[in-house]
Amino acid sequence: MTKHAAYPSEDMVAAVAAPAPAGRHFTSFQPLKSASLDCKKHASGAAVVGGSWFESMKASSPRCAADAEHGDDWMEKHPSALASFESLLAAAKGKQIVMFLDYDGTLSPIVEDPDRAIMSEEMREAVRRVAEHFPTAIVSGRCRDKVFNFVKLTELYYAGSHGMDIQGPANHLQATAEVVHFQAGSEFLPVIEEVFGTLTAKMEAIAGTKVEHNKYCLSVHFRCVREEEWNAVNEEVRSVLKDYPNLKLTHGRKVLEIRPSIKWDKGKALEFLLKSLGYAGRNDVFPIYIGDDRTDEDAFKVLRNMGQGIGILVSKLPKETAASYSLSDPAEVKEFLRKLAKSKGDAPTMKMMT
Ligand SMILES: [Mg+2]
């Protein structure tokens, strides 16, 4: 395991002695009041509801208007993490950066077949280099084994099934992860299996759907379904779930997700990992979470409430978000990761910045 020194390590003592005011680097980038309220509503994992679902799905799917550009007002509130790179590093000065990365739409492109959401070798190299310097975790809705098979880097932490299934690089989280399994409710596993069978059979009637088994949760992808049939997908899934009140339905980018109704999400996974790494309650840690979807809002919200670190939304379009910064696509994520890893060699320059 590579050592994970603070950034830059020699500033740690000063940072502990005189910590930055909580939320200092957020003050210039407060979201719109209405955006905050909506994020709260969605981040709670609210069930997908009737007619609003269709419009909400269209609004959260950048591919519907892939050529649209960020509005100036939105970019002012969620500036590019690349354009703001130097000030972002200044905010992290003397603190331990911990990197959290979503997978689909963040490290890999959103593709029609979710089994083909392959990350590029260049992206893998960028993640590997970041992990050489900072603890790095992949936090995904997919099952842990599946996302590991995509990323293939043994030095990372992996939080699969929206954080319900966590494992560390040296297996030292393994014992604690068993607690997480317990919290996630392994009693749900047979129910998830049963619903997977029912949904797989039902979805055969709607061309283009794909039901993915993610151990603790299920994903019904409809990236390849005609827009006129999106509501049919939603209604079929909802009709199946009527018999399972202990499961809840949420949605992401052209995907419906079925999960146990327990209080566990990507935000909880972030908190759990920070605690496992020994950073709970410390003000010398600077978590960076990069994600593109609604489920990532739980993590953005945790960071905003902590007043530490930053959330970075990956989106080509303005979206309601609790993230402070933005990147437009996985290519920009790759560039950001490269710059972050490279900055470790630029510590003397950084020391002159503040
Ligand atoms: Mg994603």
Automatic annotation (TrEMBL):
Reaction catalysis annotation: alpha,alpha-trehalose 6-phosphate + H2O = alpha,alpha-trehalose + phosphate
Keywords: Hydrolase
Gene Ontology MF terms in the entry: trehalose-phosphatase activity
Its EC number(s): 3.1.3.12
Required cofactor names: a divalent metal cation
InterPro entries assigned: HAD-like_sf, HAD-SF_hydro_IIB, HAD_sf, OTSB-like, Trehalose_PPase
Pathway, per record: Glycan biosynthesis; trehalose biosynthesis
Function: Removes the phosphate from trehalose 6-phosphate to produce free trehalose.
Name recorded for this polypeptide: Trehalose 6-phosphate phosphatase
Species annotation: Miscanthus lutarioriparius
Lineage, top ranks: Eukaryota, Viridiplantae, Streptophyta, Embryophyta, Tracheophyta
